Amino acid sequence: MKVYSHRGESKYAPENTMSAYYLSYLVGSDGIEVDLRKTKDDILVLIHDKSVDRTSNYSGKVSDYTYQELLKMDFGNEYFKGEKIVKLTEFLKNFSDRDIDIYIELKEIGYEKLI
Predict the structure, then answer these.
(1) Smallest Cα–Cα separation from 84: which of 98, 109, 97, 65?
(2) Is 91 helix (H, G, I), strand (E, B) or coil?
(3) Following CA atoms 18, 20, 78, 61 in sequence, which dihedral angle do they give, to the nearest 10 degrees?
(4) Angle at CA 80, nearest 5°, toward 34 and 29?
(5) pLDDT in tens, the chain (115 residues)
(6) Which ranges in the chain belong to alpha helices (H)?
(7) Taking Cα atoms as reference points, which of 92, 48, 54, 94 lies closest to residue 73?
(8) How far apart are CA 89 and CA 87, in angstroms?
(9) 105 — phi, psi (to 5°)?
(10) By Cβ atoms counted within 10 A, which residue in 22, 89, 97, 114 is the most buried?
(11) Is-catalytic flag, 48?
């Protein structure tokens, strides 16, 4: 049986952030599950919800913001302040060569070719 960290190690760090992903690796998870959405300027980012309301200090749909606008938002919490949204390419750059499986969940259809 394999154990995957859902949205990273989201029990201990804000979901779908680099801190949550690194914790997944450090605790020895077999894999990391991430959620994929597209920004207004066609950048693939890792976030579960259609909106940033629940996980950031802003509100609105992910698809209504450019990547640069999303970078101005804080996706952290009281213990992890200043966490930024993660681009798929940034995540893969940091984890594709590590001994950990990656499970990418497409939250919408139509941008498979961007991957």
Answers:
(1) 65
(2) helix
(3) 70
(4) 40
(5) 999 999 999 999 999 999 999 999 999 999 999 999 999 999 999 999 999 999 999 999 999 999 999 999 999 999 999 999 999 999 999 999 999 999 999 998 888 888 8
(6) 18-26, 67-70, 88-95
(7) 54
(8) 5
(9) -100, 120
(10) 22
(11) yes
53: left (phi over 0), alpha (psi -120 to 50) or beta: alpha
The separation between the first and the last C-alpha atoms of the chain, rounded to the nearest angstrom, is 28
Could you tell me which residues come within 8 angstroms of residue 18 by beta carbon, excluding any fewer than 6 positions away? Answer: 83, 84, 86, 90, 91, 94
CB within 8 A of 99, min separation 6: which ones?
none
Amino acid identity of residue 6, one-letter, is: H
Q: Is 62 among the residues known to form the active site?
A: no
Catalytic-labelled residue, pool 7, 37, 38, 48: 48
